Model the fold of this input.
Amino acid sequence: MAQIPSSRDIEAFNVVAVELSFRRAAERLAIDQSALSRRIRQLEELLGYQLIRRTTREVSLTQAGEIFHERTRLIGAEIEKATHAARIAAEGKRGQLRIGYMSFAAIEWMPQAVAAFSREFPDIELELRYIRTQGQKIELARNTIDLGFMLGPFNHPQFETLQVESEPLVVILPINHRLATRPRVTLEDVAAYPMVLGSMAEWDFFRTFVVDAFAQAGHQVNVRYEASNAMGILGLVGSGMGVSVYSQSIERFQPRTIMTRPIADCPARVETLLVWNRAYKNPALLNFVKTVKRLTSERQ
Done:
């Protein structure tokens, strides 16, 4: 296989081809003229043909030299562009991040983090995917997403986590429900009514979390209706089809057909975590984590 000329020798040749003077070319390159001459000779020997005609009066290009100059004169600029682009990527300022999120992060944390990160790193392409908590764990392990906003707790040596939120549960009631007149309710109060919860197919992690919270207090939940998303849950409750429980963040976005009340005797808290795989960290990912850490500190 033939040897490939070095970019340094090609650059030297192209400066000579432009200046048509070894003296001026050597000055531009800040090297000795004899060293420049040796570079050109070595390049010609490597290629096996003459590129430059030298006489005591002038320097000119051979036909091969003209073609070589035409085809290689942009290499230096392209190398510089490539170096700059690679440096930006290495600093985490360009590239792509794939981010998973679930319903509890969709209200505030995911959009706030995306907005703050995009302002600072506008050249990073963000792919956002709605994935339930258990699904995110699988996707992270397979490296099909880079980070995930999911429900906690979650402890695994393969993953790093950052807690971004910890909220109490609240009961969601139709606006005219009899419990709505109370400043707070108990788990026993809520368990006395039919409930609307997310389906096991889409809400398995949170559904289990809620059932366990009631069970630990000695109560069973009567699930009358299931919905696949938060809007479905709110719509059914607002229509008087039952009550539900959700994290406290829902209070900032509740429709006029429902109201919320704190659950006085429920110690369980809904944790929202940012999770990423230790094995697949990259500069853009680390910059996103820094952005979320800054947001969490600002809210404390």
